[in-house]
Amino acid sequence: AKLLVLHGPNLNLLGSREPDVYGRTTLADIDAGLRQRAQAAGHVLESVQSNAEHVLIERIHHARDDGTAFILINPAAYTHTSVALRDALAAVAIPFIEVHLSNPHAREPFRRHSHFSDLAVGVIAGFGADSYRLALEAALARLPGH
Ligand code: DQA
Fold first, then answer.
1. What's the fold here for domain 2-50+57-140?
2. Was 87 annotated as part of a binding site?
């Protein structure tokens, strides 16, 4: 099956961005690990990072036509702001897992609300780069035919 990983704004800076909060693993390393794991399980995984809301929205629209079976998304700051990105996921009705490196509930109050969690199959947060790995395992276990 096809899996799509979406990374929101500022996650291109992973590795150097607030390492005490987000760790030292780069986004390229995270994506490579996910791709390998998906491939080993007989699946195809594509990762997209964007700092622009419309790019993420349009990639989600395209997922409806390209056979994407499952989405992993770290909406980053858009978690707390973007009704438009939420609506895109609702529109395509592809199951998704919400992923965060940090635990937003242990941080500033404005990070406690997510526009995505109630639509998500589940939420994995607080385990650094491992959050993505754990989310992928959860997604693989839920793919059709598994
Ligand atoms: C984040 C948490 C968000 O609150 C923040 O805006 C991010 C990253 C995380 O992965 O921990 O950019 O989604």
1. Rossmann fold (3.40.50)
2. yes
Q: Which of 43, 100, 115, 132 is catalytic?
A: 100
Model confidence at 144, pLDDT cuts 50, 70, 90, reads: confident
Kindly state the helix (H) or strand (E) to which residue 139 belongs, with its residue range: helix 130-140
Ligand-binding site membership of 7 (annotated)? no
Contacts of 6 (CB under 8 A, 6+ apart): 47, 48, 49, 50, 56, 59, 60, 71, 72, 73, 74, 75
Task: Tell me if residue 22 is catalytic.
Answer: yes
Nearest to 49 by CA among 75, 69, 18: 75
Q: Is pTM beyond 0.95 here?
A: yes
Tell whether ligand 1 has an atom less than 6 A from the beta carbon of residue 79: yes
The tens digit of pLDDT for each residue in 31-67 reads 999 999 999 999 999 999 999 999 999 999 999 999 9
- Asked whether the beta carbons of 99 and 132 are under 8 A apart, the reply is yes
Q: In terms of Cα–Cα distance, which of 85, 71, 69 is closest to 146? A: 69
